[in-house]
Known about the structure:
The longest helix has 25 residues, at 306-330. The chain folds into two domains: 39-236 and 349-480, 3-Layer(bba) Sandwich (FAD/NAD(P)-binding domain); 239-347, no CATH class. Helix 2 links the parallel strand 1 (41-50) and strand 2. The N and C termini lie far apart (82 Å). Helices cover 33% and strands 19% of the residues. Strands 1, 2, 7, 8, 9, 10 and 21 form a seven-stranded mixed beta sheet that branches. A four-stranded antiparallel beta sheet has the order 14-15-13-16, covered by helices on one side. The chain is of the alpha+beta class and 480 residues long. Helix 1 (6-13) crosses helix 9 (306-330), helix 2 packs parallel to helix 12 (423-443) and helix 8 (262-276) crosses helix 9. The site of flavin-adenine dinucleotide has 37 residues, from helix 2, strand 8, strand 17 and helix 12.
Amino acid sequence: MSDKDQSTLFYTSRIYGGDDAFVRRDRPAKTIKEAARETPVFAETDVLVVGGGPSGTAAAVAAGRSGAEVMLVERYNHLGGLSTGGLVLWIDRMTDWSGRQVIAGLACDIFDRLPAEAFQGPARDDWGSKDAATAAYWTQRTAAFHDVVTWSPTLDPEALKTLSMQMVLEQNVRLTLHAWAVEPIMEDGVMKGAIFESKEGRQAILAKVVIDSTGDADLLCRAGMTMDSDIDENNIHHCINTAFLIGGVDMERWLDFKVNDEQGFADFMTQGRETLKFFDKPFVSWRNDVALFMGPRLSGYSAVHVEDLSAVEIRSRELAVGYVDVYRKTAPGFENAYLMLGAPQVGVRHSRRFQGLNKVTRAQWDEGKVWDDEIGVSTSLSPKFPNISVPYGALVPAGIDGVLGAGRHVACDASSHTFLREIPQCWLTGHAAGVAAGLCANSGVQPKDLDPRLVQRELLRQGTYLSPSVEAGLAAAAAE
Length: 480
Ligand SMILES: Cc1cc2nc3c(=O)[nH]c(=O)nc-3n(C[C@H](O)[C@H](O)[C@H](O)COP(=O)(O)OP(=O)(O)OC[C@H]3O[C@@H](n4cnc5c(N)ncnc54)[C@H](O)[C@@H]3O)c2cc1C
């Protein structure tokens, strides 16, 4: 067989026989006893942030701004989590349906500082536009939804990695990469830090306040908290896959084909599905010559089960290779395409959600409830719903002191998770958790006892958008 045939062999061989055939292997019914040990303390700090994704990066920056001593522990070699290493380059809506930017704060700081060539999206004047031609143009480029232009750009992951590192280092955050947190340090129901593993072995970090921003609530789960893991069956948030980039593309030519040759496009998608079973369209990226694939969305796997994760990687790789083959053969704009990069991080949309003092629920959508302890406002799923108020209580794990949670595992129901997991929302909850952790560490107060108005005032100072009634309440309280 020639080298050229290898890709065909790979994806048709279906090592795991496709999704249906994947079975977890039996494990021996045995245990071993590990020797008890003294674990050296690596560092003591005010705030320990575990996980350097969008939420953890935002949290570390915000805690650093408070003057607290901050450490950020990340298992990989970069910051940004799924928004960089996961190649989730499409930063979803930060504007509401009127075009007002409601996810602001850290999100604004990031886009103010990214070089212009590092992202692609509509000009500010077009946010909220319902002009048919403008909306149609941006719909093809993931920045219009329900015929409304939204601020939801795509960006260069390397530029975001660089900026994220700069932003945390500017706040004197002690960045510890290649370090995998494995166990919380618990004392009488208080999280006092975390144990991590690295090439040096097992070491401890002691902290006044910990932020779990691992995305999978690793520390909170190992502290014994019960996790919510129910899903919204109608949504894709249970799907897992490893994203990839295809280079050597002419995206404008592809879009022209997709929009103007309906039959050709339909035939192409049918052919792809017949060949590979799972087959998706590309997303635009930050450049015309790079196509982004954030699928194929695989179902039925657990994101916290090591065998499932291995199976997802194998299946995603098979499909990525297969996609390149199918696209190269027939898709206009893909004649010179090549597999440029498979994401270094597996794409997990949902695994666990912790139980908080409060949570965002479906019940609040219709009435547009505004929480007194609101720490941010999320965009809603469609123009029929008002904006969604996010309470401070959703960041405070119930029954455990010394710790806050931020990111895609915050306290919410399954329906609300479908959007609270998005990158801007993770910046939002991370920003608020970082502000709160800084306040707690500086004052010796537990997160559950912290006055949310202190968090709100600081967030407003740092450019966060809060509902007008919350802002008015704060102003009235200050005037008393
Ligand atoms: C395929 C896919 C498509 C998506 N599409 C979009 C989209 O179009 N737009 C959008 O806005 N959002 C999208 N999302 C959602 C979004 O990317 C994530 O929900 C978001 O990145 C979560 O941020 P986070 O900080 O909570 O967690 P993550 O981004 O997962 O970051 C967690 C970080 O913690 C680190 N970590 C984890 N455990 C440990 C540990 N024990 N010790 C040390 N470090 C640890 C990880 O390495 C990682 O860097 C998508 C997600 C996926 C998977």
